[in-house]
C-alpha cells in the first residue's frame, strides 16, 4: 500500500503522457493530468512555506542560537502572506492582479525582495574576481586552452576587442577578437555543448523510463511496505 | 550586545533616518507620496548595503537581511501560486459559487468519456486531495501519504521529459551534427582549385565556414567519446577522447567568460541603483 | 569632468594592479577584501562617469532582430518573463527593448510568465515602458498580460495545445474569450513568434522542448549570460536568435536606435552597462595574469603554492 500505489500512479501518469503524444484523442486527459500537476505544484509551495514556518517557530520556542533572526523570518513571512492574501492596498478589486502597481505586495517586491535577491547574487562578482586571482592557473595544456578561450570571450564581448584588433584587414577578419569570440561560440562551444546535451538527454530518457517502470524507487524514501 | 555593537547600531539607525529625510526632501518636487517613496528607497538601499557588508565579514546586519529574504520570498511564491493557479484554475472548476466570489469566470464542463461527461466539479477534487496529502509531509505519522502526490509529480515529469528530450535534445541534435564538410550555401563546393585560389580568412569566408563544420562534426563525435566510460580510453579511442577534452575545455572557457560577464552585470545593476535611485549621483 | 574621471580611474586601477603584481611576485598574501575593492572601483567609476561605447551586433542578435522586424504588422508574439530579480539587470533591458520593437512594428503581444517573480517584473515593464511610451496601444487589442501560472513545463504542455484551458483570463480576471487579441488564438501553434526571456528552469530551453519543437513555432531567446552558451546547439534550427547577457541587450538596443528614429532618445540600460562591464573584464583578466605570473615564479623557485 505504501509503495505499490505510488508506483502505480507514476506508471499510469507517465505512460499516459507518453502515449498521448501519439494518440491525439487522449489530449484532453493529458491536459487535465498536467493541470493536476500544476495545481499540486502550488501545494508544494504551501508545503515549503509551512515547513519554513515550522522550523523557525521551533527555533523560537526553544530559544535556540540566533532565534532572533528566526523571528525576522517568521515576521517577514507572515507580513508578506497577509498583505498578499488580503490584497492590501490593491487599487482594483479582488480580481485584479495581486502585484498590481500601487499594492503593498508590489511595493514589498520592488523594495525588499528585488534588492535582496539581486544583491545576494551580485556578491558572486566579487567571489569570481577573487577566484580568478587565486585559483585559475594554466597548470597544463587543458587549463591553458580553457583560459585562452575565456580571455577571447571576455575581450570579444566588450568594445575592447574591436579597439585592439579592429585594424586587422577584412581578408583575415576571423582573427579580430570579436569575430574569434563569435566563432568560438558557434563552433567549438556549440560542439562541446551539443555533446553534453546529447549525454544529458540520454540520461533523462533512461531515468524517465526507470521511474515509469518502477525500477528507480529512491523517491519513495527508505520505508519498506 | 557589546558596546561597539550598540554604537554601530545607533549609527546605522541615525544614517537611515538622515537618508530618509534627505531623500524625502529631494523627492518632494516630483512625488506627492515622497515620504513613503523615500522610506522605501532607503529601505532598499540599506538592505543592499546589509548584504554587501558580508564582503567585510559575517555580521548581524547580513544575517538580518538573509533571514528576511527567506521569509518574504517563501510567502511571495505562496501568494502568487494561490491567486494565479488555485483561484485562477482550480476553484472556478470546483464550484460556480467560489468562481463568482473570486470574480472569475466559471469553468464548468468536464472530461468527455463518450458514454458520459465526467464533471470537472468532481474530477478536480483529485489534485485537491493529492495536494492535501502532500501537506501530510509536515505530520510525523502521515508522511507516507505524501508519496502519492509525489508519485504524480514524478510520473508527470518523467512522462513529459521522455518524449521532449528524445526529440529536441537527442534526435534533432544528432541530425544537426551531420553537416556538409565540403561547403554549402552561401559557399558551395567548387573543387580544390577554386578553394585554394580564393582562400582567405575572413569571418564570413568559405574557409572559416568549412572549418566550423569540421569542428562541429569532429567535436561532437569526440566529445561523446570522452563521455563513453565503458571502454578504456587508449589507442585511437584515447586520442579521440583527448580531442573531446580539448573541445570541452574550450566550451568551459567560453562558459566561464559568460559567467564572469553575468556576475558583473548584476553588480552593475545594484551599484546603478545605489548611485542613481538612492544617492542621485547620476541621472 | 568625465575625461578627468576616466583618467583618474585608470590611474587608480592600473596603479593598483601594478602594486598587486609586485606584491604577488614577492610572494606576500593579498587580503581578499583588496580584490573586492578593485572590482568595486572598476565597476563604480564607469557608472559614475557614465562611460559608454557603441555596440556592433553579432549574427545571433541580428537574426532575432531581423525576425521581429520582418514579421508583418498584426503578427502575434508571445513574450515570456521567466526570470527573477537576480537575472533582471541582464534580461529586463532585453524585455523592454523587444517589447518596444514589437509594438512599434504593430505586432500583438501576449505577456506571460512561468516564474512568480516574472509577473511582478512584467508589471514593471508594462507600467514604466509600455503605458508611458505607447499610450495609443490598447490592452486586450494590442497586448494582453495573462500573468503567471505555477507548474513549470506543465504549463507549457497545456498551452501548446489549449491556451485558454491554462489561462482562462488575463492577469486581472478578464476572460480571454472577450479580448480581441485572443479571437484567433487557440494554442501556441497560432502564434507567429515566441520570445522566451530567462536563464533558469523553466526557461528558454523548456520553451524549445515543450512548445517550439512540438508546435513548430519559431522561438527567440533572451537569456542571462550564464546560460547563453548552452543554447547555441539550438541555433538556428530550433531557435531563431539569442541575446546573451547584457551585451546581447546592448546590441539589440543599438540596432533599435539605428533603425527606428522613435527610439533615438530611449533609455538604454544595456548600452550604459557595457562601460563598467568592459573595465571589470580587464581587471579580472589582469587578476588571472598576475595570479599566473606569481604561480609560475613561485614554481620556478621550487615553491609549493
Give an overview in words.
The complex is a heterotrimer of chains A (225), B (283) and C (305). Chain A is 72% helix and 0% strand. By secondary structure, chain A is an all-alpha fold. Chain B contains 10 helices and 2 strands, in the order ααααββαααααα. Chain B has a two-stranded antiparallel sheet with strand order 1-2. The longest helix of chain C is centred in the C-terminal third of the chain and has 32 residues. Chain C is elongated and about 75 Å long. Chain C starts with a helix and ends in a 5-residue tail after the last helix. At the A-B interface, α1, α2, α3, α4 and α5 of A face α2, α3, α6, α7 and α9 of B.
Count of β-strands of chain A = 0
Could you say how many structural domains of chain C there are in total?
Answer: 2
Terminus-to-terminus distance of chain C: 44 Å
Helix-strand pattern of chain A: HHHHHHHH
pLDDT < 50 runs, ≥5 residues of chain C: none
Mean pLDDT of chain C: 93
- Specify the biggest β-sheet of chain C: 6 strands, parallel
Which fold name corresponds to the CATH topology of the largest domain in chain C?
Rossmann fold
Discrete helix count of chain A: 8
Fraction of residues of chain C in helices? 40-55%
Please estimate the helix content of chain A: over 70%
Q: What attributes characterize this protein structure?
A:
heterotrimer, A: 225 residues, mainly alpha, 8 helices, C: 305 residues, alpha/beta, Rossmann fold, 6-stranded parallel beta sheet, 11 helices, 6 strands, 53% helix, elongated
Brief characterization of the structure:
The complex is a heterotrimer of chains A (225), B (283) and C (305). With 225 residues, chain A is mainly alpha-helical.
Write the layout of secondary structure elements.
The complex is a heterotrimer of chains A (225), B (283) and C (305).
Chain A: H1 4-22, H2 27-61, H3 67-85, H4 104-134, H5 141-156, H6 159-165, H7 177-186, H8 188-212
Chain B: H1 3-27, H2 34-52, H3 60-94, H4 96-101, E1 110-112, E2 117-119, H5 120-123, H6 125-135, H7 147-177, H8 192-197, H9 206-226, H10 235-278
Antiparallel strand pairs in B: 1-2
Chain C: H1 2-25, H2 32-48, H3 59-70, E1 76-82, H4 88-104, E2 108-113, H5 116-133, E3 143-148, H6 153-159, H7 163-166, E4 193-198, H8 204-215, E5 219-223, H9 228-231, E6 241-244, H10 245-259, H11 269-300
Parallel strand pairs in C: 1-2, 1-4, 2-3, 4-5, 5-6
Helix pairs in contact in C: 1-2, 1-11, 2-11, 4-5, 4-10, 6-8, 10-11
